[in-house]
Structures are given as C-alpha cells and as structure tokens.
Amino acid sequence: MLQKVEIIEGIELVPYGVFIKEIKALAIADLHIGYEEALLELGIHLPKSQYPKIKERVLYLLDELNPRLLIIVGDVKHEFGEASRQEWIEVLDLLDTLQQRVALHIVRGNHDNYLIPILKRRRVPFHDPFFLLRRYLFVHGHKRVPEEVFKRARIIVMGHEHPAITFRDEVGAKTKFKCHLVRKMNDSCLVILPAVSPLAPGADISFRLLPFSPLLRKIDLESFRVIVIDEESGAFDFGTLKDLRKFFGTEAQLQ
Question: What global pTM score does this model have?
C-alpha cells in the first residue's frame, strides 16, 4: 500500500514526490540519470545501472496514483556537460515510457545542461527556471524566481537540496532516510522533495548549515517540518528541524 501524508487538503506527500489532487499532478525531482558513468570516470565502478531502479520507482507511483500530469522538477540527467551515451539511451527510454502514460513537463535543473536536444526528440515541454500551473509553482531551486511569481503560488515545489536525516541506534549503527521538508508561509506552502536517484542518498539536514538554493537563504530553515515516507518503514512526521536538532544534540554544533 502506497504511503501518503496529507499536508494540506488535496496535497499529499508520497515516496520521493508530492501529489496534487486538484490538477492530478505528480511532482518528483533529482533522477540524476547517468550518475554511474560520472562515477566511473572517477574510478568508482558500479556493476549495474541504477536506471532500472529509477524507472521502477516512477512507474510504481504512476500505477498507484494514476496522475494526468508528471512534472520532473529538475536534474533529470547528471553530467553538467554534454549528455553522455548512457544519458541519451536511458533518458530517451524514460521519456518514451512516460509519454505513453501521462502528460510530461520538465523544469530545468542545474545538471540539465544539454538536455534540450534529448527533449526535442520527443517534444517534451521544458521550463526554465520555473513552471507555474494555476496556483502551483514548480522550480528546481538553483536559480532565483521573481517575487511576483512566488506571490501567485499556493504551493511551491522544489528539489535540488536532496534532504535526508540520519538516525543512530543504541549500538551506534546509522540509518539514513530521505525526507520531505515542508514549511507553511502565510497563504502558501513550500515543499522540498527528496531525490529519486538511489545514488543520491541525501545531505543530512541535522548538520547542514546553509542551503544550496538561493530561494532558501532568507527562510528560517529550522521551522521546516521533517517528514520521512519510507516504502518499507512507513510514514513519520518528526516535527520541526529545530526540534530534531535539539534531539540529536547538533544544535550547538551549528552555532
């Protein structure tokens, strides 16, 4: 059974994404297809491609939610430069598979340089730096967005940060969970998505001082709710990041 957490009426967090009932849209982020080839150039060899796992995760969400629209909020591919052979093959395969099921839109991420030639092959809409649909704003997060655009949005969905939280048991063993970050701001709500990629385990938010995104520099990060939705363990709301840092004892280390 698909785990869900409703944060506002009609807005549900699901593993790796968020589902918006009003427009029947699923948003996910940070697939980083082709990461293995980049690691291989650094001398790190992975025996199997991670792409089948990425594809399986996305198709599972489509099967469970049956959205009309899928929005990938940046970093479809991994290489900053020209698309690698692996990226061409796997991104095209993913586009072909998804376009048979849903209307597809992609928001540009900082890793999506040279993605346009691939998307043009399949005529996939590409938005840079944001996609505003009715009251819903989708932005990767690496570029600034005009203030007037933010004011029009009820829900703001972004990626880029790869949030995760690490727990330690009584013998010191560590387990890292990808997590969603949620913050209500006046009449709007900001949702930061975890990365879909299995090779992007996430940055531990209990130790992070500053965000990567310029969109978050003036926002009180400690007021974000930390929500873990794990396919095996279940869904858990851990309260605010401030409370979690107090619990872990990392608050003083960040002063």
Answer: 0.94
